[in-house]
Design a protein that fits this description.
408 residues; Outer membrane efflux proteins (OEP); four-stranded antiparallel β-sheet; 67% helix; 9% strand; elongated
């Protein structure tokens, strides 16, 4: 996969994103659940019972053949605030999903860079081993001819063993990185995703440090989520305070009575069909200490969230400032590694020309190639460090997804 393909696949298949979407859907359904009491509900039923004497009430109603009951909240401020709180929680869950997507995109980008780096550096390590094998063979020939000490052969053999060990370690690191990348994009631990090294340009840097900090403080998902939680807790406190307000409920009922229940013997007039519709008013006189306790508890939660909000703002500003410094340091190190590599490549070219003139040996050329490969490794390490620092800065600024390489 290319970097864009890996990130897009992760946004669709990563289990963390899937769980966040499920939480968002659950919060969305909680809004419907909170609004349910304001929706009229009608229940109809019938029954069969033996009656003797005065027709006694069953569940608060006179015995009837068919009965229909309707109920609905007309005015209930605590429940209205509960609906508003559920809507705010749904918005918080939506912000959480977007934040989880950005987190997964950054984690996938980081794992992709690890897999790409280990693959490239591992290839260079294998070339090192091949060059050192040629150096060992040249040294062995010199030892047989008496032009080199046996110690030189042991030293060449040691360097070859170290190169092979490094190549083996990098191969194991590549397998680990590709397995971790496979899990990040939504596949199983038995799968491996190989990073396709495309010639992509370095991600662009934002305009300035102050602009990035200002933009991040306005759009950061963690800050928006905390602000939404504070708003939800504020609505919860207002709902607890509204428990002292009156409530009005719809009252509606229909009953079809039967003469076999002896109504005519105890009442002057019998009516078969009976309808009742109106409103029920309730006014709490003594709410108890639970209301004030809930308000105090909610106020404590709000204070904690506000403290967390301020700490998150400071953390974001500090991380962005540090990220800008890391980018500058990484770019400087990458430039030094590039210059060092240029010197090593020129050295190989000079030795090749001297070997053609008979003034340099194959051993010197192979040793120079080993040194060049080492410089290539250092150059790739420095370049990937610089690219990772830039992606991290874009992640903190909230521009990572927008800065991904375009589709070919």
């Amino acid at each position: 996969m290319t970097l864009r393909q890996a990130v897009e696949t992760a946004l669709q298949r990563n289990p963390d994103v899937t769980l966040a979407r499920l939480d968002e859907e659950r919060a969305r359904q909680s809004v419907r659940l909170a609004r349910d009491p304001f929706t009229p509900k009608v229940t109809i039923g019938s029954g069969l019972a033996y009656s003797n004497g005065f027709p006694m009430s069953i569940e608060g109603s006179a015995p009837s053949i068919v009965q229909a009951v309707a109920s609905q909240f007309l005015f209930n401020r605590p429940q209205s605030y509960a609906v508003a709180q559920a809507r705010e929680n749904a918005r918080s869950a939506q912000i959480g999903t977007a934040g989880k997507q950005e987190e997964v995109a950054w984690r996938t980008t980081s794992l992709f860079l690890d897999a790409e780096r280990t693959a490239r550096v591992g290839e260079l390590a294998r070339r090192d081993a091949e060059s050192l094998q040629a150096v060992l063979e040249a040294v062995q020939a010199q030892v047989r001819e008496g032009r080199a000490l046996p110690l030189s052969e042991k030293q060449a053999n040691l360097r070859l063993a170290r190169a092979r060990e490094l190549a083996s370690d990098l191969e194991a690191d590549q397998e680990t990185a590709e397995s971790a990348l496979a899990i990040a994009v939504g596949y199983s631990a038995q799968d491996r995703v190989r990073a396709l090294s495309d010639e992509r340009a370095a991600p662009p840097l934002p305009e300035s440090e102050e602009t990035v900090i200002h933009r991040a403080l306005e759009s950061n998902k963690d800050l928006r989520r905390l602000e939404s939680q504070i708003a939800a807790k504020t609505l919860e406190m207002r709902g607890a305070r509204a428990a002292r307000l009156p409530r009005v409920d719809l009252v509606a009922q229909y009953s079809m009575l039967s003469k076999i229940n002896n109504y005519e013997q105890f009442f002057q007039r019998f009516q078969r069909n009976n309808v009742e519709i109106g409103a029920s008013f309730q006014l709490p006189l003594l709410a108890g200490p639970g209301v004030s306790a809930q308000m105090a508890q909610t106020m404590t939660d709000i204070t904690r969230l506000r403290a967390e909000l301020n700490a998150t703002r400071n953390r974001i500003s500090t991380e962005i400032q540090q990220s800008f410094r890391d980018v500058k340091k990484a770019d400087s190190s990458a430039e030094v590694a590039r210059l060092d590599l240029d010197v090593a490549r020129d050295q190989v070219s000079v030795l090749l020309a001297q070997m053609q003139e008979g003034r340099a040996t194959m051993r010197q050329v192979e040793e120079a190639r080993v040194a060049e490969n080492d410089k290539w490794m250092a150059f790739y390490d420095a370049r990937y460090t610089a690219e990772r620092a830039r992606w991290n800065l874009l992640h903190l600024a909230g521009n990572l997804l927008a800065s991904l390489p375009a589709k070919p």
